[in-house]
Amino acid sequence: MVLEGSSEALCPPPSLELRPSCNKSQPSPPLGSGSQPHDALFPGDKEPIKYGELIVLGHNGSLASGDKGRRRSRLALYKRPKANGVKPDVIHNVSTPLVSKALSNKSQHSISYTLSRSHSVIVEYTHDPNTDMFQIGRSTESMIDFVVTDTAGSGGGGGGQGQSQGGAGGDGGQSAQSTISRYACRIMCERSAPYTARIYAAGFDSSKNIFLGERAAKWRTSDGLMDGLTTNGVLVMHPAGEFVSEPAPGVWREISVCGNVFALRETRSAQQRGKLVENESNMLQDGSLIDLCGATLLWRTPDGLRRTPTLKQLESLRQELNAARPQCPVGFNTLAFPSLAQRATVDKKQPWVYMNCGHVHGYHNWGFRKEKGAGSSAIGGGAGAGGTAPASTGDRECPMCRRVGPYVPLWLGCEGGLYLDAGPPTHAFCPCGHVCSEKTVQGWSQIPLPHGTHAFHAACPFCGTWLTGEHGHVKLIFQGPVD
């Protein structure tokens, strides 16, 4: 071993800060907005510090199989009773045969960069009392705080019939090989105000190691240190403006193992890194999106969440909609949005909408366009979990305005953290029919989400369906009671 140095010499703080594996004796903090008791974790604090919340897009409030432990659609990160962060300490240049010996110390965190068959660089880390670390990945091992599995792929084609990405919640069951890393990324949160959260690619495994093999994208930095990228990369997009007041998409970037920001590679796993973006950082802000190549996460700050509706408020909005007694303009039957818990089947009173015009009706089994084919879908059948349109619905002609397009059931968006405000649910995403506020549909319709190795497409945040039509959303036109 020929080179040693201090953490100050290794990486300029705060460019890289890591953590030891999760203390098995400490359960994961409960999710939610802080209403649950945390006395077991913080005996002296009634209100523990919340750093923020991670919400997986495409799951409308919960996974289809239910939120269980660390596998869930949403997780709140709280200040830990004891700091578990680590920071770079010593750098070693070693011959590759010595790497396995150097990495065998399971009490020592380290990152190994294999440069060739005969040369590796190992960076050791030491405890950092000023940070908490939370690890995210596909692995169910104890050091992963938030287990995230692939969200089913979006369709995006076929005459507006976008497929659901799990609806109210595909549980991430993987029919194909997962593209999410077992140890995808880590988030470092400062334990003192303003509780800054930063994201880094890759997480430590059960041996407290991060290993970048010979074929991984890695390089020496200008100051002689090391950095690298993971196989499929960790992409981040910070909002261009204030996420709630001025929603506008930023630019997708890639985050390195040391937390540096780069332009995107030509393809997701290309070995050539993008250009360093020196004027941007890995610091998360309200509305930052994190893409793990198979699932996209939204970061919401406590302040941002205070301006979104709670489940209780969403239920109140649903009851207000139903109290207005909207009616089908043809059948004159009263319509009603189903309860937030009912997301698997279409109710007989459920409102349906013609997507190209926004006229709201009750379900009817007529109006198909012959040239479009498609047999009808009976009530209660075919609606995907979370309320995406039945796959065989086909295009229909609206009896009010004669416009032809998708005809789908309407569902209230149940994940409040995806809302940009607590406004009335007056609009729906096209073509899935998830209903929320005007500001929310307008904001998400502008955001291109990663798909595949280099494609981007706007999608409904509640179910992941690719958005279609001129705007990606439609204003709902209800008819009130005739009496």
Provide keyphrases for this structure:
single chain; 483 residues; mainly beta; seven-stranded antiparallel sheet; four-stranded mixed sheet; 5 helices; 27 strands; disordered N terminus
Describe the structure.
The chain is mainly beta and 483 residues long. 7% of the residues lie in helices and 24% in strands. The chain contains five helices and 27 strands. The chain has helices spanning 7-10, 99-102, 302-305, 311-323, 438-445; strands spanning 50-56, 74-78, 85-94, 110-116, 119-128, 131-137, 146-147, 185-190, 197-201, 209-212, 218-220, 226-228, 234-237, 253-255, 261-262, 289-291, 296-300, 352-354, 360-361, 395-397, 404-409, 411-412, 427-429, 434-436, 449-451, 455-457, 473-475. The strands form seven sheets. A seven-stranded antiparallel sheet has the order 2-1-17-16-13-14-15. Strands 3-5-4-10 form a four-stranded mixed sheet. Strand 8 (185-190) and strand 9 form a beta hairpin. The chain is elongated, with a radius of gyration of 24 Å. The relative contact order is 0.14. Residues 1-43, 154-175 and 371-393 have low confidence and may be disordered.
